[in-house]
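FORM 7B: Structural annotation worksheet

SECTION A. Query
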Amino acid sequence: MKKISDIRLYKSDVPNKDGNSLPWHLDNRKASLMAHRTAMKLREQGFSLGDFDHLYLNFTPCLMAGTSAPAERKTNERSWYRYYDVGVDQGLFCRLEEEETAVFLSAALTEVLITFFAPGEALAAMVQKAAEEAAVKGPEMLMRFKVKKGTKAQATLFLRYLDNGSYWPLLMVTDLEGRELLRQNLPGTRDLSSLGEIRLSSRRVTVNPRKNAFAKELKPISFSF
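SECTION B. Predicted structure
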């Protein structure tokens, strides 16, 4: 079971020769931000879509308005993404990229997650709360990304997802009773290569870059407290 990684929004109205609609990116910035933040908050809590981690939501008038279903288009059984279709009427379809439809798109996303991936009241409540937090807090929403616990303190690395599509990390260190010892904003980043292993001693915390080709020029970031 994989933790959810991302949610992306698409639209389509032209069936192909197999009768399946052909999706393209839905250009609604506000809704796309809410969708990604919802996925971030759910990932923090270990929410899973099953054997894939990217959910592609496709809004289409080819399906009865108010209904949703797994898309019939073929994907590799081992693919890391799946399409789910959401039916909308033609009038709404033409307005999907207007900012005012972001609330509708977020609500439809929440409904799909609850219907197909959140059996039971606890998971449904988790989805609802994550979507609400993403909508209300926006770029101020914190996602707990990494935690390192030591003998005397705990370091937590949070992510915020800004409206420009970059991440703004926040590093916090507390003692074991929860008293804050350090709160430090880290440099913004488009990817997460700079955020690898956390090392924690009694007086210093260090965030090392990931061990991959993209991070080979990056340096550790360290703070005393």
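SECTION C. Observations
The two ends are 38 Å apart (CA to CA). Residues 121-137 form the longest helix (17 residues).

SECTION D. Sign-off
Analyst initials: ____
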